[in-house]
Amino acid sequence: MIFRQLFESESSTYTYLLGCPDTRQAVLLDPVIETMERDLAALHELGLTLAYSLETHIHADHITSACWLRSLTGCKVAYPEMDGLPCADVGVSEINPLKVGSLVIQPRFTPGHTDAHHSYLVELPGSLRAFTGDALLIDGCGRTDFQNGDAKTLYRSIHEKIFTLPGDTLVFPAHDYQQRHVSTVEQERDRNPRLGGGKTFDEFVAIMANLDLPYPKKIDVAVPANRLCGACPEETAGLIEDPPGPSVQG
């Protein structure tokens, strides 16, 4: 698999580029509008054609570049089927994985941060990678106080769908705020301050109830735009400003 982990600094978001070395087709997982030009340049540099943009969930801290990528490259926009977005071309689910050449991206329903959140597994020879979105972070997890989030549901999702994976499964989160890049299931099971080390259901719920986090500064713009796959002008003129046009197409 061709793989790149790409970072957007304002929202501390990781975008993942996954490519099939045989067909030269690729997926961008959780792309961000501000770094679209960089992502297209990476595709061009690697000689890849973008087949899909893919989201773990409807984000509240940034606007996706999904529909912009579709306009520029002809790729399809994929979202969790449960989100029911008319702007999406493909709905993924646990029974409907995303196939890109020889790559199979297997969704796992992991609600709790949002009610339709999905993580994704990619199995390679001798390696399993889990792209955990905002469900499980390195030494943390996604917040549960908006977008139908629920701490009890998130605890079950992580323990049943992620912590049951082999311990050496690589964990790639959607965000990190301390310049960390990857973890493992075993590391998070052992030392995650919110969920690891045998933290009980009640302990986790109490931790989440007392985080006292600030209101996401972009949520009032990002969520409506992301429900429109990034709100491209031909779909919703004037909702967001046009980004600078990319100089390179994938």
TrEMBL record:
Its cofactor is Fe(2+). GO terms for biological process: glutathione metabolic process; hydrogen sulfide metabolic process. One of its GO terms (molecular function) is sulfur dioxygenase activity. The keyword Transmembrane helix does not apply. Gene3D superfamilies: Ribonuclease Z/Hydroxyacylglutathione hydrolase-like. SMART domains: Lactamase_B. Keywords: Acetylation, Dioxygenase, Iron, Metal-binding, Oxidoreductase, Transit peptide. It holds the Pfam family Lactamase_B. Residues 12-175 form the Metallo-beta-lactamase domain. Signal peptide: none annotated. Belongs to the metallo-beta-lactamase superfamily. Glyoxalase II family. This is Glyoxylase-like metal-dependent hydrolase (Beta-lactamase superfamily II). It comes from Sphingomonas yabuuchiae.
